[in-house]
């Protein structure tokens, strides 16, 4: 077991604190007063780690991701990346949403180019060539070199999501924040993209924080699964470490009894210990 855990986490880049959430509370101001979504969230993520967040709808997963992205500030507590407090969005933290958010009038290439040039602001011809190279490299990375000149309406859902991931990665972020990235895709495309995401993650060594509602997906992809309690004032209820070595092979994992033990731990957390009261008013 010890060997397995060491193998499984050997891709992590050091033991220094990377992303840290300390006593994070977030309240929204509403017409009925303050609504506390998250309370006392503490989390430490290592560089290169793949962490998934699961929890019932409305418990505050997107709020948590938005706080790390810097779209909002915590009401209390603090979030830091490499000991620098996060106070605003930045190219070191890129978000990929469920619904692609590509500009429909631009090609796949142009969608990525727009983001990259806003970060690098190339002036000389050499810098412009470098930016073009970065865009092409990332289109290749997600296997879309041939679709560079297609507009979003000419791409499938899976291809659009790959453009979104390429666009985010092309900014060379330290953290990739994925908000249900495969939620809108059919099951086969979803599995293909999960495998592709694992390849990309291994190549880019980016740290990933991903929200998902799919327990199998979380167990297959993650180093750790963060399980959120129900809101209001949700917090981290439990953290599950996934000990499978990498690279992982889906077919082998699906035959491993430990896969089902881990999956059942998540399901029991969600549907026994933190089941939603569907009969509430
Ligand atoms: N800007 C806001 N103002 C007030 N309330 C908000 C705001 N944003 C989110 N909320 C509320 O905070 C709670 C948590 O929302 P959030 O989107 O973070 O949950 P979630 O776990 O990501 O949900 P889902 O899984 O359905 O996407 C919800 O009750 C939501 O209505």
TrEMBL record:
* SMART domains (alphabetical): AAA
Name its species: Gloeomargarita lithophora Alchichica-D10
The entry sums up its family as follows: Belongs to the ABC transporter superfamily. Nitrate/nitrite/cyanate uptake transporter (NitT) (TC 3.A.1.16) family.
SUPFAM superfamilies, A to Z: P-loop containing nucleoside triphosphate hydrolases
Q: Which GO terms describe its cellular component?
A: plasma membrane
Q: Which PANTHER family match?
A: NITRATE ABC TRANSPORTER ATP-BINDING PROTEIN (PTHR42788:SF7), TAURINE IMPORT ATP-BINDING PROTEIN-RELATED (PTHR42788)
Chief place where the protein resides: membrane
What GO terms are given for molecular function?
ATP binding; ATP hydrolysis activity; nitrate transmembrane transporter activity
Name the domain of life.
Bacteria
Coiled-coil ranges from the UniProt annotation: none
Assigned keywords, A-Z: ATP-binding, Cell membrane, Membrane, Nucleotide-binding, Translocase, Transport
Pfam families from the UniProt entry = ABC_tran
Kindly give the membrane topology term recorded for this protein.
Peripheral membrane protein
What's the protein called, per UniProt?
Answer: ABC-type nitrate transport atp-binding protein
Mind giving the lineage of the organism this protein is from?
A: Bacteria, Bacillati, Cyanobacteriota, Cyanophyceae, Gloeomargaritales
Give compartment(s): Cell inner membrane
